[in-house]
């Protein structure tokens, strides 16, 4: 799927046609596709049942209903509100017109032969001019689901003790976890992280590399496999449904299939000829009759349309048992889950809340990472600035030491010169004798001060050089 999608995107066409592009993509890939399509310069026409995807990407909705094409401006959430308002308005208009029609009919029936016959005729003309208003059409039939456990399990439903799985690399583990009755847990993470593998280990279809799985007392689990390969291809739909229970009668099977929108001649279709959506509904119908108090679902919304997803969401939120499911449908996770297990890069963590809570955590972590990077850059800049200041200061010290050495050398030379002059016999007879003598007496103090300055500057330079090393 990813390769086919990549080939299409690389062509960069003026019109991009996408049929369920988010199917089989993990959430990271879906979010990347959303960002890509939002900035795509060409036109995009797509079919999708991913409600969050539609909210983030599209600007107009085309709906095919009752053999008519209807259009709505805005994203999916806007479409839902507009459609609801349109149906309400249509119902109001229909009711008002029908009330007016009945009112006119009553007047005509009452006065058509009496003193107000002329007015009755006028009312009859008004009635004839009333345009026929089509009654609001009933919404398309939806699945009627209710998963009812046969009995309640113990409070501790599932215990994982040191559970690990690895192939050429570690998928997950060791996991030490307890799942309690009534929890609704969504497993999320990129494709290949081990989510489906974990469900397969819990159900015994695969062996762990280490550790143990222990089910609680009274737990009865059912398993929905995303490959939908648990169905017997040669069976009819009705045969497959009747195989779901030992005491399943023909009438029971047809009634249950009807709740999942499989009616009439459809129940005699071969399983091998069913579409993905039909296979999904048949699998859900089989789960419906099992009465499990713990359900393990692997991508249950794949192949389902939005109405079917909404029916499933409602049924699962009312399910009194325990739920553990894998899904890349963010809207579905938000509606159903109260806890998220994240599996990514061999790591595992638990987040309270549905998709929104999980997304808020990811955003917070992303912001923290950005802040840390910003702080790191500031510190790097600060370090660079500090280094430049140190280099500048070192250069100033080196120059100052050199100046101090030069000053001290000149003072000492001056003192030696005066001593040579003072050794001459006629020194006292020279006109500047007193000035030079006074200068000679001042020089020891100046030399001492110059020496101390040179020593201090040299010491500061040595300390700075040691810090650098």
UniProtKB/TrEMBL annotation:
Coiled-coil regions, chain positions: 390-421
InterPro entries, per database record: AAA+_ATPase, ABC_tran_Xtn, ABC_transporter-like_ATP-bd, ABC_transporter-like_CS, ABCF_ATPase, P-loop_NTPase, Val-tRNA_synth_C_sf
Entry-linked SUPFAM superfamilies: P-loop containing nucleoside triphosphate hydrolases
Pfam family, one: ABC_tran
Keyword field: ATP-binding, Coiled coil, Nucleotide-binding
Ranges for domain ABC transporter: 145-370
GO MF, one example: ATP binding
Name of the protein in question: Putative ABC transporter ATP-binding protein YheS
Gene, per the UniProt record: yheS_39
